[in-house]
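1st attempt posting a full record on here, be nice pls
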Amino acid sequence: MKHTLPSISFIHLLLFVHLPISYTQENANFMQCFDPFPCGNVQNLVFPFWREGSSPEFCQAQGFGLTNCEDDDPPLISIGGHEFRLVSVNQSGYSMTIARGDLWETICPPPPISNITLGYPFLGFSPTNRNFTFFYGCDSSVAPPRGGGPMTECTQWSNSFYADDIDDGRSYQQFRQLCRGGAIQVQINQSNFEQLRREAENLGSVRWRLGFDVEYDLADIFCGKCNRYKGWCDDLSPPEYIPMCRKPGTHNLLNPASI
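the predicted structure (as tokens):
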């Protein structure tokens, strides 16, 4: 079930207000998960994000581990077996902008190349994302569809081209069958899509093309962590539905040493 949640700082405050003093003191370790931290060029990250190699286990949410935090660049995030760059995070909107790692430096990576999925039920593509499709090594008789153009950067494949917003599955398959290098569909967020359509000559110039938006369900992620440590997750009264992790007694739910 999807939940509508307020800001992280409000959740942080309620955790202290609603828990007994003894529980709050023992639960101090879990509060580390909501202490903001930087990674790469992204600032003020909190749970469910965490740094590999430095965050405690009880802060580690699957699909949100970050690496390359020391570089002054978007950090790496591995989701569903695929590597992405974390471009930005909208904490209050529970969404992030990520870009495919294999297209970060070039739109013409070595084969094999394929479409990607997110692989987790608590993640979803934003409905406002748009599609670009890349076709590699197509027959010489194939011309780019309307709204597309050549990808001259792909020197390893002759006659490679792109198309924007191909929604017709038959058109996609028709072109793909005539392209020995294959085809992929890449999402891009709305603002970047509009800019790229105005500046099509920059298609292959930089880090492709600063990503697409992914929404995450913080309540599902938080409650999954709660359940893992033998607690149960309650919602407070509407309209805010703040998730709370509850367990009788004073044992710390989210500290493995106390289980």
